[in-house]
Amino acid sequence: MKTRRRPYAEQRPQDLGGGVWSVPVPIPGNPLGYTIVYAVESPKGPVLVDAGWNHPDAWEALSGGLAALGHDVSTVSGVVVTHFHPDHAGLAGQVRDVSGAWIAMHEEDAALVRLMNDFAADQHDDFQSDMLRRAGADPGEARQAMGSRPIPPALPDRKLRDGDLVDLPGRKLRAVHTPGHTPGHICLHLEDADRLFTGDHVLPDITPHIGIYPYDRSDVDPLGEFLESLERIEELGPLDALPAHEWIFPDVAARAAQIRHHHEEKLERLRALLAQRPEPLTIWEVAAMMTWNKPWDDLSPVLRGMAAGEAAAHLRALEARGAIRRHAGVDLVRFQALDS
């Protein structure tokens, strides 16, 4: 089954066959519009793949959508969170409160959720301010680009690793670790039905945000991990993809290859841009040179901050490949092509 993206108002819960259902859950004020939450049949009660944003309208959509499909939210036995972001994990705690369901996520994202719970608001502000300053944002723009501290999602009861089977009696739902968008992002392979719940890892039209926070970390390579994860998905073959946004589509392997080639081309363009500049550039300067869905001057300060995170991930991937080098100063970090 393939469904094109439509406005949330036109979305409806669907029986996808084979003991799988989908429920669109709105994301208030977000251009993505909605998260697609999936329910998988289980003799203990349905298991959800993701839960949606923590908002009264989203809760009404989730509980009402399940009811329209013949399931009461109080009968949910578990929630598998593909990653910790609020449009995926936000309602997991409320589902657990009303049903007693367990919550599972990959151990790396579980560690981040615990860190978020321990991170005070003033620490969050100091973290962002220093990160933006070292990236090269001027003080005024840095203040505007600082986002509010996100509300941490519920801590999971169960932690998953790559290859683990989810507690789903009678079915085989296996976790596939696909880091990049988050360190603990997972896809879920429903092996008995040749379906793959892809979360945000592989979407039919857009690509997920891949960033580094703080921007100047040199001990991680999220874009490199993302590209390797896409290769893993390609190896699974032409499975039907059930993503968390947009629409259901066939042949996830072909789309994964397309996304991987897109980023490889973007990396080559960035390397060529840096090779043309004799002087090292800050992350902020590099972000302003790159191509986004809007011109840099039209991006809001918060979106510029996200763009800088993505620019940093591309710079780090090039550095890991030995194509560029960093100049790490006390106040700023800069990057330069090796052949400059």
TrEMBL record:
This is Glyoxylase, beta-lactamase superfamily II. Pfam families: Lactamase_B. Gene3D superfamilies: Ribonuclease Z/Hydroxyacylglutathione hydrolase-like, Winged helix-like DNA-binding domain superfamily/Winged helix DNA-binding domain. SMART domains: Lactamase_B. It comes from Nonomuraea solani. Residues 34-245 form the Metallo-beta-lactamase domain. Residues 137-160 are annotated as: Disordered.
